Each structure stands twice: as structure tokens, then as C-alpha cells.
Amino acid sequence: SAVISQKPSRDICQRGTSLTIQCQVDSQVTMMFWYRQQPGQSLTLIATANQGSEATYESGFVIDKFPISRPNLTFSTLTVSNMSPEDSSIYLCSVDATGGESVAEAFFGQGTRLTVV
Amino acid sequence: RKEVEQDPGPFNVPEGATVAFNCTYSNSASQSFFWYRQDCRKEPKLLMSVYSSGNEDGRFTAQLNRASQYISLLIRDSKLSDSATYLCVKRGSTLGRLYFGRGTQLTVWP
Count of CB atoms within 10 A of residue B48's CB? Predict the structure, then answer.
């Protein structure tokens, strides 16, 4: 299994500012994933972060808006830049690890509830 | 078409009821499927994997129909603690890539 510590758990930010979200994993993992979950919607993958290389962004998400760092195999950050109210959402980091069923299972951080005013 | 389509509900059932959730997926090459549970204001957690032969875990039964590209979750003898959102998830061909349905909200009332 994997335990992920994500912070902050919530924040209220002014439009035009930036917020950096951190995720710390209790074990080394090759890939970390960043998701966004808007109210009543499914989780949408923002990007995949590999250590030592640039993150891979999904369609509709760009590095200038969501820069990601991955300095080592246990840590990653996602920055939401130049925020607008449309960025209000829950942001989650995730890793794959072997779970109780001995298959790859996705483990998530506790989420960051962001409100932009 | 979305990779995973799921009826959002909500489902409101009394304790002891049996409830079923359905989910359809696109891309027949998809190999692995899961049901995740997400409690209010919490992160998703794996409920169970879905195997081609169907599988059961206590009161929960998951089934996969590859021909129809259809997944289901059956909950028998519902408990108050089953109240949550249930997410249908498939693993894509790209390493680690998961696709989530929008979730089905279940409320079990006493």
C-alpha cells in the first residue's frame, strides 16, 4: 500500500494568485498523478509526473497553468497559477501501489479543496 | 464519447435493500476495471476489482460483460455505512492511466 500526505487540505485564494499543493508518499514510486474533481463530476487527470523528466499533460491542461515538480521518487508539487473562480475544485494526487489484492491499486492523497474568490 | 459512463443517481434506499449500479465503457481494449468508493469530502478508495468471471466480496458483487462493455456493482442488505459515492473506473493501456466515471451517489436511510 501507499500512504500519501497532501497539503494544504483546503484554501481560499484570491483570483490572480497561485497555490502550490504538495504530496509526500511514504514509499518510492515511479509515477505520480494529479487529478481535478469538480463538484458532481468525475476525476479528471491533469498530468502524470515522472521523476527526472517533464510532466505529461492531458488534453486541456498546460504546463504554464499547472506547473508540476517531481524532485525525487517520494514527492511532487502541483501549482495552480493565475487562479480564477473556474479553478475552484478539489485537487488530488495519486500513485499506483500493490494493494491488498496484489494488483496495482490507486492510492490517493486526502485532496485539496480550493476556492478562488 | 466518454471513456466511462455512469448513472450519477442519486439512489436513496432503505436499510436492507438491494441496489445495483451500472457503468458502460468505451474502448474494448481496456483490461482492468474497478469500483472505488468515495465518502463525502474524502479521497476515493478501492472497493473491489472487477473480474471477467464476476466476483463477490461479502455483500458486494461485481460483474463485467466485455461483449456489452458493461460493468455492474450489486450491494445486498444495504447498511447506513454504505452511503457514499461509487466510482466506476477502468485502467487504460497507458501505464498507470485510469479513467473515472462521474460516480453514483448512494444514500441508505434507516
Answer: 19
